[in-house]
User: Which sequence fits this backbone?
């Protein structure tokens, strides 16, 4: 899943938007309404991301961070540890 886009690094080249096969990214005008506004890539549909990393590969300024890990809730980690510990002690 796309974790973040660093808007300070993004130069608005649009390569990541064009390379995304699932249209997760969109260009958006950012900046102050009274100051200079520029176009930057933003994460429009994060749940549609397939973790292909094409956006991060095509980003020439390395502004995109993509994670491949699955975030599991904390109780599942504790339960898994308990079950694994019980299995190890039962075999000994």
Assistant:
């Amino acid at each position: 899943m796309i974790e973040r886009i660093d808007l300070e690094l993004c130069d608005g080249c649009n390569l990541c938007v064009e390379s995304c096969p699932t249209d997760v990214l969109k260009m958006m005008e950012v900046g102050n309404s009274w100051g200079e506004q520029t176009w930057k890539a933003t994460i429009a549909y994060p749940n549609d991301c397939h973790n292909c990393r094409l956006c991060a590969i095509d980003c020439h300024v390395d502004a995109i961070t993509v994670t491949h890990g699955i975030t599991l809730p904390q109780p599942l980690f504790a339960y898994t540890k308990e079950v694994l510990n019980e299995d190890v002690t039962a075999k000994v």
The chain has a mean pLDDT of 82.
